[in-house]
Amino acid sequence: MDDTLALDLVSGGNPYQIMSRLVTMAAANTGADRCTLTSLDQNVFRVEASYQRGGPPDFVGHEYPIDWLARQPLIQQAVTSGAIVVGGSLGERSDIEPDLAPALLEVKHTGIVPLPVGNAVGAVLILSRKGDRPFAVRDLEGLQQVGMLAVLALRNARLVEAVQSAQQRGLEALTLMSRHIASSMEPAAFFEKMSETVAGLVDAERAAFWQLIGDELVALHPWDDDARGKAGTMRMPVPHPASVGGFAGVLYAGKALMVRPETVPTDALPEPVHALGNVRDLLAVPWRTAAGPLGILMACNSRTTFIDQDEWIMRLAARASALVWQGYDAEHRAEMLKAAEIERLAAHAQRMADLDQQKSEFLQLASHELRAPITLVSGYLSMLEDGSLGQLPETASKVVPLMATRMRQMSHLVERMLAASRLEIRRRDAGTIDVRIDDVTRAVVASLTIDEDPRRTIAVETTGPVYVRADPDSVETILTNLVSNALKYSPEMTDIAVVVREEPGWAMVDVIDHGIGISEQESARLFQPFRRLDSALSAGIEGTGLGLYLSRNLALELGGDIEARSASGEGSTFTLRLPAHPAPPAGQSGD
Amino acid sequence: MTEGTSTTRLLLVDDDAALAEMYALQLTASGFDVTTAHSGAEALRLVNDSLPDLIYLDLGLPGMGGLEVLERLRKTPDTADVPVVILTNYSEPDMMERGKRLGAQDYLIKVDTPPALLAAAARKWAQHTED
C-alpha cells in the first residue's frame, strides 16, 4: 500500500484527497490507464474520484440513477455478488451515454472491484486498460482492502457533514424560536409568527397550530394567503381517541405523523386535511403540555421532502410553544382571578357603603322624628312656664319645671344621636391644622372645671408644647368627653389628673380618675354606641352611651385611638393617642 | 300687643297640625295675624291670594318640600322679596346651606326655639306692608 495513503487513512485526512490518491495508486499498481471510484446508495451512483493517464481527473461529481446499473452487467455483477469482476469494455453497448462514450470506447479491458461496507457494497473501483493485457483478479484483490478503508473514511466524512448541518439547522431553529419566545407578543401574533418560522425551518409551504377546542381542531391562524381570504376559521373534527394512526396518534399518543408521496401515498392523508385542499404531504407533531394535549402543529407541502430532522424541529417548536401557551394561560387565569377579586371587593365595599348609608339615614330620620314630639311638649311647657297659657294652679306650676328639665334631658339624648349620625354621614375631610394638644387640654379642663363642678380641681401635667396635625374641634370634643366622663364617674373628693406627654411618634393624653372603674367584662363593650356601664346605671349617672363611641371614632379618623385601663372600683385611665407632628416653624403656630 | 292700625301678617307652614296650632297660639297671643298652611301647595296658594309679611316655613312637607316652596317663591317676581324664616327640625348643614342660598332670612331649629322666641324673630324679620 502507498505509504502516504496509509498515513491519510489513519490520520483521518480529507476524504476527497484520500479518494484521489486511492485511484491514482490503484492505476499505478495495476498498470491501468483509467480508474474511477464511484459510490452507491439507495438512489444514486456517483463518481467520487477519477484518474486518467496523461489527463486531468474527469466525471468527478457525475451522478447516475441507480437503475443505470442494469445497463452495465459487469458493474452490476460486482455489486450484486460483492466479488471482483474482470471483463472487456464497458462502452460496447449502443445506448451508452454520449458523454461517457469517448472514455469508454477506447477501453479494451476492465476490472471492477466492489468495496463492501457492512453487508452491502458502498462503492466500486473501476479500472480499465486501453492495451490488450486483461486484468487478473488476484492483481486486484489488494485494492479491495484499502478501498474499503477509503470508503469508510468517505462515509464518515459525509456523516460528520450531515451532523454539522443538522446542528447548524437546529441552532438556527433554536435561535429563531427563542427570539419569538423572548418577544412580548400577544398570543395570536406569537403563534402565527412561530408557524411562519416553523414553515421556513422545515421548508414547508404551510404551517399552523391547531387547537383542541371541544370536539374540533381549530387553526389558531390561517396557514396561507388563500386561507386568509376565506371567511371563518379552518377547523376539522377531532379524531376519536380510540382510532388508530392519523391525528389520533398525534393527539393522544404523542406520535408524529409524516405523510410523504414517495413512502406514504397522499391518499393516506386524513380526510379533513384533503378537505382543506392542495395538500400533498404533511408532517404533524403533538402540541401538548404535561397536563394533556393542546392540539397539533402541522406543516405541509414540503418543497423537498420532510425528513426526520424536520420532525425534531417541529417537536421543539411545539414544546416551546406549549410552554409559552402555559405562560399565557397562567397570566390569563391570574388576570381573571384578579378581576374577580376586585369585583368581589368592590361589591363588598358597595354593600358596606349601602349599609352604612342606610344606618345613618335611619338614625337621622329616627332622631328627626323624635324631635317633633319633644318640640311640641317643650314648646307648651315653656308657654306654661312663661304664663302664655294663663296662670297655673300652684301644684301644677311646681311640676312644670321638672317636666321641662326632663324634656331637656331627652332633647340632649336626641342631639347626641344626631351628632353620632352626622359623624358617620360626614367623613371628616382635611380640615386639619397644627394643634398644640397641651393648650387644648388646658382649655378643656378649665372650661369643665367652671361648667360642671367648680369645687373640684383637675391637675394638668405637661412637658411642653406637644403638636398634632388634626381638626381642633375633634380634639376638643374627644378631650371634653374624656374629662367630663372622669368627672361624672368619680366621687367628688377624689383626684383627677390629666397628663400630656409624648412617645416616639405619638402625642398622648392620659385622663386618670379614681372613680368607679370598669370591670373586664364591661371594658369589652366600652366603645360601642348606646352601651352604658351597669355600674354607672346603678349609680344613677346620666349619660347617652354615645360619648366614648363618638370620641373613639374621632380619634380613629385622626389616625389615633383611645385605650382604657381600669379595674373595677379602682378608677380608670383613658389614653388618647394621636400621631405626633413636628412643631411648626416659628410664626405659624396653629393655635 | 297690636301695634298701630295694621297687624303683621304671618303665614305659618307646617304639616304637623298640633305644632302649627301651638305656634299660632303663641304668635296670636303676641299680636300677630297668623294663617297656617299644612302643605307647600296650600302655602303657595295662600301667598298668591295675599302676600304675608313673613313666612315661617317648615322643610319636611308632604309632596312639595319646603326648599322647593322657597325656590318657587323666589322665582316669582311678586313673591321674590317676601321674608322667609325656615323653621324645621332638620339641622343638617347642607340643608341650612341650601336654605340660606335660596334666600331664607333665618334658619331656626324648632327643638331649640321656644315659641316665645318666634315672636321676637317675627318682629325682627317681618316686612311690614301697608294694606
The Rg value of chain A, from CA coordinates, equals 53 Å
Low-confidence stretches of chain A: none
Radius of gyration of chain B: 13 Å
How many DSSP E strands of chain B? 5
Number of strands of chain A: 19
Mean pLDDT across every amino acid position of chain A:
81
N-to-C CA distance of chain B = 19 Å
Portion in helices of chain B: 40-55%
Assembly state here? heterodimer
Strand numbers in spatial order across the main sheet of chain A: 3-2-1-6-5-4
* Share of residues in strands of chain A: 15-25%
Order of helices and strands of chain B: EHEHEHEHEH
Derived structural class of chain A: alpha+beta
Distance, first to last CA of chain A: 116 Å
Largest interface: A-B, 19 and 18 residues
Q: Could you say which overall geometry of chain B the principal axes of the C-alpha atoms support?
A: globular
Given the structure, what is the number of helices of chain B?
A: 5
Keywords:
A: 591 residues; alpha+beta; six-stranded antiparallel β-sheet; 19 strands; B: 131 residues; alpha/beta; 5 strands; disordered N terminus
Would you give an account of this structure?
The longest helix of chain A has 79 residues, at 308-386. Chain A has helices at 3-11, 15-30, 73-81, 101-105, 137-182, 187-201, 225-229, 246-253, 271-276, 308-386, 394-425, 437-451, 472-488, 520-524, 534-538, 547-557, and strands at residues 34-40, 44-52, 63-65, 85-87, 109-117, 120-129, 204-213, 216-219, 235-237, 257-259, 282-289, 292-302, 433-436, 458-462, 467-470, 496-503, 506-512, 561-566, 572-579. The mean pLDDT of chain A is 81. With 591 residues, chain A is an alpha+beta fold. In chain A, the strands form four sheets. Chain A has a six-stranded antiparallel β-sheet with strand order 3-2-1-6-5-4, with helices on both faces. Chain A has a six-stranded antiparallel β-sheet with strand order 9-8-7-12-11-10, sandwiched between helices. Chain A has a five-stranded mixed β-sheet with strand order 14-16-17-19-18, with helices on one face. By secondary structure, chain B is of the alpha/beta class. Chain B is built from five helices and five strands. Chain B has helices spanning 17-29, 40-49, 66-75, 93-101, 115-125, and strands at residues 9-13, 33-37, 54-57, 84-88, 106-109. Chain B is globular, with a radius of gyration of 13 Å. The model of chain B is unreliable at 1-5 (pLDDT under 50).
